[in-house]
Specification:
Number of helices: 13
Oligomer: single chain
Strand content: 15-25%
Shape: elongated
Distance between the termini: 32 Å
Structural class: alpha/beta
Number of strands: 23
Largest sheet: 8 strands, mixed
Radius of gyration: 24 Å
Length: 472
């Protein structure tokens, strides 16, 4: 039997590496999104609870996360979805490959009270600075520049969790790992999912044969749709991410509109299929899912968005991508600050434009590159950024905003966007200038608003959108 990998290798001999297991994104988002939305509605019977709990596989990854994790800033829930293309057991029909790999990661952010949900896709070919991780065999893997999907290949779910936290500064609460076998179970339990094709597709590699227009797909046909790369888009991973985000939106829309939430029989069948398809951290039990469900049960499809980390070409290799800055960091800051963290001391409101504030950024920590990243954020907001470097002298216990002679109003204006900062006079701060001294608590500027930055939202996919309104 020729695997999907081999088909892709034959058809793209000189292109980027094949996108292994791309379709699993569907069951990934479906599994956790529906778990969170659905679990709290009917688990009255203890036997049912035990059955669902027994379906889930758990892994203990706490030791791989390290001691310097991002702080928990609010009551939002962040769940990392990881796809595994492990091909043993029930997955063997899709080809026999040794080991376990992942080419896609999605960070699901659930705001408190069901106000909104955002699924952030991380392109598998992103070139990033990977932190040191511990491999599944127990040896240390040094920090290095590499593709983001190496984290899972090298150290499993724990390493990927540690990597995403390090790169984004977002505290992750749980992970969910999904393999091949659950995809058809979940989609079939929903009664199929609607798609919209811009033209007729006849793809021998994925075995997808459909006419243009609307279709409800399930089983092998649904699997073929999310695997196909021939005749739809440009064949790139980022193009397919967008198409699959639309499919995931359709999954959420179907689940929130076909009675699954209110029909006990449908609910139980879906949960049974979902829990058989996932592996989670040891703390993400069915009981924990039930608690989470209570805060988001009123969420509708219109409150769910899917976005991709802003990206551009990676100059040394056109087959790879690099995150576009400061857009990516602005996105991560918006997610971190879902509930804005209020300063411990009220900050006086000052009506100055960012362009009227001259700022020096000084790194008062041992974390390399921190001042540069903060400087990029300030520049993106319109501040006049001067010196960016390392603090000389005693390191502060927390981030400080210091001002020189005549710059007290500018310092007050800057403090309005620096979490927890209270302006103080700086003995060595030049006249007319503000020093932003970064302490160990620094996690970025407060979000300009509660919404996703416009640069990211422009490409967002809303789960309630008409699938045929944009056939790209």
């Amino acid at each position: 039997m020729i695997s999907d990998y081999e088909y892709l290798d034959q058809d793209y001999p000189s292109g980027p590496p094949p996108n292994r297991g791309v379709w699993w994104r569907v069951v990934g988002w479906a599994s956790i999104a529906m778990a969170v939305v659905l679990v709290g509605t009917s688990l009255a019977a203890y036997a049912t609870y035990r059955k669902l709990e027994g379906n889930i596989k758990h892994e203990d990854v706490a030791a791989q996360l390290g001691g310097k994790r991002p702080p928990k800033l609010n009551k939002a829930l962040n769940v990392l979805l990881i796809g595994s293309d492990q091909r043993n057991g029930a997955n063997a029909k899709y080809g026999r490959d040794v080991g376990e790999r992942s080419d896609t990661m999605i960070l699901l952010h659930l705001s408190p009270g069901g106000s909104k949900a955002v699924g952030i896709s991380f392109p598998r070919d992103s070139m990033v600075q990977l932190p040191q991780c511990t491999s599944t065999s127990g040896h240390a893997i040094p920090a290095h520049l590499g593709m983001i999907n190496e984290s899972f290949n090298n150290g499993g779910a724990g390493c990927t969790w540690h990597t995403i936290e390090t790169l984004t500064g977002i505290r992750i609460d749980h992970f969910v790992k999904v393999d091949f076998s659950g995809f058809k179970r979940v989609v079939d339990t929903l009664g199929g999912v609607e798609i919209c094709l811009p033209k007729r597709v006849a793809d021998k590699a994925s075995k997808l044969y459909l006419s243009a227009g609307r279709h409800v797909v399930k089983g092998e046909q649904a699997l073929a749709y999310v695997r196909t790369r021939h005749g739809l888009g440009d064949g790139s991973d980022t193009d397919r991410i967008k198409r699959q985000q639309k499919f995931l939106g359709a999954v959420v829309k179907k689940a929130t509109s076909n009675g699954t939430l209110t029909n006990p029989s449908k609910l139980l069948g879906f949960l049974n299929a979902m829990t058989k398809s996932v592996t989670t951290d040891k703390d993400f039990t069915v009981d924990e899912m039930k608690k989470v469900a209570g805060s988001v049960q009123g969420m509708s499809a219109g409150k769910v968005q899917f976005i991709t980390v802003p990206w551009g070409a990676y100059a040394p290799d056109p087959n790879r991508v690099a995150w576009r800055q400061p857009d990516a960091n602005n996105l991560f800051a918006a997610i971190r600050n879902d509930n804005k963290v209020q300063a411990s001391t009220p900050v006086k409101k000052v009506n100055l434009q960012p362009s009227q504030v001259k700022v020096q950024v000084l790194n008062g920590t041992t974390t390399p590159g921190l001042a540069g990243r903060a400087g990029d954020q300030l520049t993106a907001r319109g501040y006049q950024v001067g010196k960016v470097g390392t603090l000389n002298g005693t390191r502060p216990a927390k981030t400080e905003v210091r001002y020189g002679t005549g710059a007290d109003q500018q310092a007050a204006a800057l403090a309005q966007v620096v979490p927890g900062a209270k302006p103080v006079a700086g003995q060595d701060t030049p006249a007319g200038t503000v020093d932003l001294v970064l302490g160990p608590d620094w996690q970025g500027l407060k979000s300009a608003s509660a919404s996703i930055p416009a640069s990211s939202a422009a490409g967002a996919v809303n789960a309630a959108a008409d699938l045929c309104s944009d056939k790209s």
